[in-house]
Design a protein that fits this description.
CATH topology: Tetracycline Repressor, domain 2
Number of domains: 1
Structural class: mainly alpha
Order of helices and strands: HHHHHHHHH
CATH superfamily: Tetracycline Repressor, domain 2
Largest sheet: none
Shape: elongated
Distance between the termini: 63 Å
Mean pLDDT: 92
């Protein structure tokens, strides 16, 4: 029979996400993580293996609670073209209101960790691919509905929108103001134009 964990796993994993997000992978020591999670280092190793395994779990939790939640909510509530506009508006809003200029854990990980760890690189690429897939679905649906030109290349334009999101999130790390972030999104949104 496996031993029961003597701590709140959801709270502990959320704290690990916050620690990695604020400090980055390299700068987050096991001691920092254990302290943030409210557990001892031995408990961290027993429950999660090591810092890298915990980081992989933290990325998944972040993806579920941030990116996937946002995509599902927006797709459920908005027509396809408005879904794209709303997604970018929320990214800008979240970035502009972040007093710590943390950016996005996935984008930060793409810049900081992915180039040194092939497996984490593949994970981050897959997560970012989910964002691109959202844009592509929305563009294809918007073209079918006549919200955008039927001549758009959804594959290419979805990659462009992903690049815009990455640019906004990287600029957010520098403390960029809302107007600059909006100016990055505006030309991309203009590509949507109007329907037929």
């Amino acid at each position: 029979m496996s031993r029961l964990k003597a701590f709140d796993e959801d709270r502990a994993l959320d704290a690990a996400v916050d620690c990695f997000w604020a400090r980055g992978y390299e700068a987050s020591s096991v001691r920092d993580l254990a302290e943030a999670m409210g557990i001892g280092s031995a408990s961290l190793y027993n429950a999660y293996g090591d810092k890298r395994e915990l980081f992989v779990l933290a990325l998944e939790r972040y993806a579920n609670r941030s990116m996937r939640e946002r995509i599902a909510r927006i797709e459920a509530r908005h027509a396809p073209k408005q879904a794209i506009e709303t997604f970018l508006a929320e990214i800008i809003e979240r970035s502009a209101r972040d007093p710590d200029s943390k950016g996005c854990l996935l984008v930060n990980s793409a810049l900081d960790v992915a180039s040194r760890d092939a497996e984490i690189g593949r994970l981050v690429t897959a997560y970012l691919g989910e964002i691109r897939a959202f844009f592509r679905r929305s563009l294809e649906a918007a073209a079918r509905d006549g919200q955008v030109s039927g001549q758009i290349d959804a594959a290419t334009l979805s990659a462009h929108f992903l690049g815009v999101v990455l640019g906004i999130r990287v600029l957010a790390r520098t403390g960029a103001k809302r107007r600059l972030l909006e100016s990055v999104a505006e030309p991309a949104l203009a590509l949507l134009g109007s329907g037929q």
